[in-house]
Write a structure and sequence with these properties.
CATH class of chain B: Alpha Beta
CATH architecture of chain A: Alpha-Beta Barrel
Number of helices of chain B: 16
Helix content of chain B: 25-40%
Number of strands of chain B: 11
Number of domains of chain A: 1
CATH class of chain A: Alpha Beta
Radius of gyration of chain B: 20 Å
Strand order of the largest sheet of chain A: 5-4-3-10-9
Shape of chain A: globular
Helix content of chain A: 25-40%
Oligomer: heterodimer
Radius of gyration of chain A: 19 Å
Order of helices and strands of chain A: EEEHEHEHEHEHEHEHEHH
Strand content of chain A: 5-15%
Structural class of chain A: alpha/beta
Structural class of chain B: alpha/beta
Largest sheet of chain A: 5 strands, parallel
Distance between the termini of chain B: 51 Å
Strand content of chain B: 5-15%
Chain lengths: ~260, ~425
C-alpha cells in the first residue's frame, strides 16, 4: 500500500474518493474533506459563477483540487465554452466534461463528450470525461487525450449501485487510464465493490448529501474505498459467481 | 360551488357596461375560443390530442385504495398510476405520497431550493378573464414602466442579492409589444444571471427574438385545460383562443428557449383533471424535446382588487399537497415552483417534500420595488394582479430555507 497514489494529469492524490457537488451544501464539503478524506471536489461552473453570499468556491479548503464540471451543457460547443470560462475564473486546468441532452435521466452524450474532449485536451486541459460505459468510445476518448475515463455506475442520483458493472469491468481491463466510477454509487458497499473491481477512484454526491449522519457516512465511504482498494491490490481469491457447489454431484445418478 | 367573479365598476361607461354584460350573459356574442385569430401561428403537433384524450377518459372515481398502493410501490410511475395518485382514493395516503415524493426530490435535486423573484413591468391587458385583477374591465391603476424605470426596478432587486428574475406583463400586444419586452430582457441580462418570461403567448419567431434578447425560459399558464369552462372564463381578447395558448411552450422550445413552465390555475375547474392535464402536458412534451428543462407551478385562485371573495374553492392545502406529490412521483426530474400565493407555513413544509423553487421579495404591482424593498416613497405605481400571501424578502426566505436544513441556490445556469 506504500505509495499507492492516484495520478491524474501528473498530479498525485492519496485519496481515491471524489466528491461530486451537483447537490452541494457547505456541510457536505466539510464532511467530505474532513471525514472522507476527499482531495478532489467537482463543482458545477454554472453554480459557482454566482454573486451569492455563500459562494461554493470560498468553501473549498486549501490542498483540495477543484474540478470544475460543465453540467448544464447540451453540446460539445457549450461544454468547451464553460471549460474556458472556468479557467478564466481561476479554477485551474482540470475539467470534468458533462454533456447531457436529456433532462429526465441526465445520461451523458458520448458523441458530444468525445468532441469536447479532443478540443479541450488540445488546449491543455486535464480532461475527465463523464461517459456511458462503451469500450469503443472509451478508446476514442483515450486517443483524444482524456486524462481519465469516468463511466457511470447507474443513472445519476439513483443510488442503485453498479448496474453497469459488466461494462465498467471491460473498461478497467482494456483502458490504461484511471477509470473512475461516477454516478449511481449509493452505499459504501457499492463503492467498495467498484474499488475491488479495480476502479481507480469513485465519485459520489447524493449518497452523502442525503445521508442521515453526513459525517459518519463520509467516514464509512473512506473505509469502504480503502477496503476495496486493498482487496484489489491483494488479488481476490476464488469467488463463486452464483449458487454454491453441491457436495453430491448433480450428475451422480447417470450411468455409463 | 362556484366563485362569483363578475364585478361591475362604477367607472365604466354605460356603453362599456353594456358590452361587458353582453359578453357575460350572451355566449353567442363571444368568438369561437377554438379558432385561431389572425397572426397566430399554427404548428404541427400531436401533443394536445395526446394530453386531452387521456384527460377526457379520466374517471377519478374509478380508482381504489389498491390502485393507490400499487402506484406507490411501482418503481416507475405510469400514467395510470398518476391517475390513481390524483384520485380521491389517494387522499388517505397523503403521508405515504409525501414520503415517496421526498425521496424522488432528494434523488434529483438533493437538498437545493432555487429562489427567484417576479418583476411586473406593465399591467395593461386586452383580455376579459373574469378571475384576473388585470382584466380590461377591472378598474385598477394601469401602468407601463419605461426602460429607465425598468432598469431602476432591476437595480433595486439585484441589490437585494437576487440572481434570477421572471419578467411579467399584462397581456396587451398594443401596450407591451415584443420589442418592448425584448428591451426589458436585454436590461435584465445586465443585472441577473437568469431571465424568465411570463407574457402573452407569441409565435416561434418572436420567442426566438426574445431568446436572443436574453430570455432563457418561458412560463405560460393554461389556466384550465377544460375547454368548455375556459370559454366561460376568458370572454374576450386573444387569450380566449385556447389551442394557441396550449402550444405556446412548444413554440418557445422551437424558438430556442432552454426551458418552459406549465400550470393550471387551480380552482377554476375540476382540479384533478387540470392537474392530470398539466402533468401530461409536461410528460409528452419532454418526450418530444428531451433536452428541455421543464417545470410545473401550482397556483390556486386568490382574491383580486375589487373582488376579495375569490377563493380556490375545493382545492384545500391538503389537496394541493396531494397534487404536488403526484407531480413529483410521476415527474421526478421536473422543477416545481410554489409561489407567494401560498403561506410561509405551507411553503416551508412543501420545499421539504416536492417543491424546488420559490419566489421571494414579491410584488405583483408595477414599479413599486423601491417602496417595498427600501421604504422609499413612490407616487406613481400600478395596481397588483392578485394579493400575495407570503411576503418574505429574499434575506428572510434564504435564512428560513437554510434553517430547514436545505441549501438555497440563487443561480443554476450559465449563458455560454
Amino acid at each position: 500500500m506504500n505509495n499507492d497514489n492516484l495520478i491524474i494529469g501528473g498530479k498525485e492524490f492519496s485519496s481515491r474518493f471524489i466528491l461530486g457537488s451537483g447537490k452541494y451544501s457547505i456541510k457536505l464539503i466539510e464532511a467530505a474533506v474532513k471525514d472522507a478524506g476527499a482531495q478532489m471536489i467537482t463543482v458545477a461552473v454554472r453554480r459557482a459563477n454566482t454573486t451569492e453570499k455563500e459562494n461554493i468556491l470560498d468553501y473549498i479548503p486549501q490542498g483540495v483540487t477543484l474540478i470544475p464540471n460543465t453540467s448544464g451543457a447540451r453540446t460539445a460547443e457549450e461544454a468547451v465554452r464553460i471549460a474556458r470560462l472556468a479557467r478564466e475564473l481561476g479554477c485551474g486546468d482540470f475539467v470534468k466534461i458533462e454533456i447531457m441532452k436529456d433532462t429526465k435521466y441526465l445520461l451523458p452524450d458520448n458523441y458530444e463528450t468525445l468532441k469536447a474532449t479532443g478540443i479541450l485536451a488540445n488546449e491543455g486541459f486535464i480532461v475527465m470525461p463523464y461517459m456511458f460505459p462503451d469500450l469503443n468510445v472509451a478508446r476514442s476518448l483515450r486517443d483524444a487525450g482524456a486524462a481519465t475515463i469516468m463511466p457511470l455506475g447507474a443513472p445519476i442520483g439513483s443510488n442503485s449501485g453498479l448496474q453497469a458493472a459488466a461494462f465498467i469491468r471491460i473498461l478497467i481491463d482494456e483502458i490504461d487510464l484511471p477509470v473512475i466510477v461516477d454516478a449511481g454509487i449509493g452505499r459504501p458497499s457499492q463503492a467498495c465493490e467498484a474499488m475491488e473491481m479495480g476502479a481507480a477512484a469513485v465519485m459520489a454526491n447524493t449518497a452523502l448529501a442525503t445521508a442521515g449522519d453526513l459525517t459518519m457516512m463520509a467516514s464509512a465511504f473512506k473505509d469502504a474505498i480503502n477496503a476495496g482498494r486493498k482487496a484489489y491490490l491483494s488479488g481476490l481469491g476464488r469467488v463463486l459467481q452464483r449458487g454454491a457447489s453441491a457436495s453430491d454431484p448433480l450428475t451422480g445418478f447417470l450411468r455409463d | 360551488m362556484e366563485n362569483n367573479y363578475l364585478v361591475d365598476s362604477e367607472f365604466l361607461s354605460e356603453e362599456a357596461l353594456k358590452r361587458k354584460h353582453k359578453l357575460e350573459n350572451d355566449p353567442s356574442s363571444r368568438t369561437d375560443h377554438m379558432e385561431y385569430m389572425e397572426g397566430m401561428e399554427k404548428i404541427d403537433s400531436d401533443i394536445c390530442s395526446k394530453v386531452m384524450s387521456q384527460v377526457a377518459s379520466y374517471d377519478c372515481g374509478r380508482y381504489t385504495a389498491k390502485d393507490v398502493s400499487a402506484a406507490l410501490e411501482h418503481e416507475t410511475c405510469t400514467i395510470e398510476d398518476l391517475k390513481a395518485l390524483l384520485s380521491p382514493a389517494a387522499e388517505p395516503f397523503l403521508e405515504k405520497m409525501a414520503e415517496r415524493a421526498r425521496l424522488e426530490t432528494t434523488k434529483h435535486f438533493g437538498n437545493t431550493v432555487y429562489i427567484f423573484t417576479p418583476l411586473y413591468i406593465a399591467n395593461y391587458c386586452e383580455n376579459y378573464c373574469v378571475y384576473c385583477g388585470f382584466n380590461c374591465y377591472n378598474h385598477i391603476k394601469r401602468m407601463k414602466l419605461e426602460p429607465d424605470q425598468i432598469e431602476q426596478e432591476m437595480k433595486v432587486i439585484a441589490e437585494s442579492g437576487m440572481e434570477e428574475i421572471l419578467i411579467l406583463t399584462g397581456e396587451s400586444r398594443a401596450q407591451s409589444d415584443v420589442r418592448y419586452i425584448g428591451e426589458a430582457c436585454k436590461l435584465a441580462r445586465k443585472y441577473f444571471r437568469l431571465v424568465g418570461l411570463e407574457i402573452y403567448p407569441v409565435n416561434t419567431d418572436e420567442y426566438r427574438y426574445l431568446h436572443e434578447c436574453g430570455a432563457d425560459y418561458v412560463t405560460v399558464f393554461q389556466e384550465t385545460y377544460d375547454t368548455d369552462k375556459y370559454e366561460t372564463l376568458h370572454l374576450a381578447g386573444h387569450k380566449r383562443v385556447w389551442p394557441y395558448r396550449f402550444d405556446a411552450q412548444e413554440r418557445a422550445l422551437m424558438g430556442g428557449m432552454r426551458g418552459v413552465a406549465f400550470s393550471a390555475l387551480l380552482g377554476l375547474s375540476d382540479f384533478r383533471k387540470d392537474a392530470l392535464a398539466s402533468a401530461l402536458h409536461v410528460y409528452y412534451l419532454q418526450r418530444k424535446y428531451p433536452q428541455a428543462e421543464m417545470s410545473l407551478s401550482c397556483p390556486r385562485l386568490r382574491p383580486i382588487i375589487n373582488n376579495d371573495k375569490i377563493t380556490p374553492l375545493d382545492v384545500s392545502e391538503k389537496r394541493l399537497c396531494q397534487i404536488l406529490c403526484a407531480y413529483r412521483i410521476f415527474l421526478p426530474f421536473v422543477g416545481i415552483t410554489v409561489s407567494s400565493r401560498e403561506s410561509a407555513r405551507f411553503r416551508n413544509g412543501i420545499v421539504k417534500i416536492a417543491a424546488t423553487k420559490v419566489s421571494a421579495g414579491v410584488s405583483t404591482g408595477i414599479g413599486d420595488h423601491a417602496k417595498k424593498y427600501e421604504g422609499k416613497e413612490q407616487d406613481i405605481t400600478g395596481d397588483e394582479q392578485f394579493e400575495i400571501e407570503d411576503v418574505r424578502s429574499l434575506r428572510s426566505m434564504y435564512d428560513d430555507i437554510t434553517s430547514e436544513g436545505l441549501q438555497p441556490v440563487l443561480n443554476d445556469y450559465l449563458y455560454v
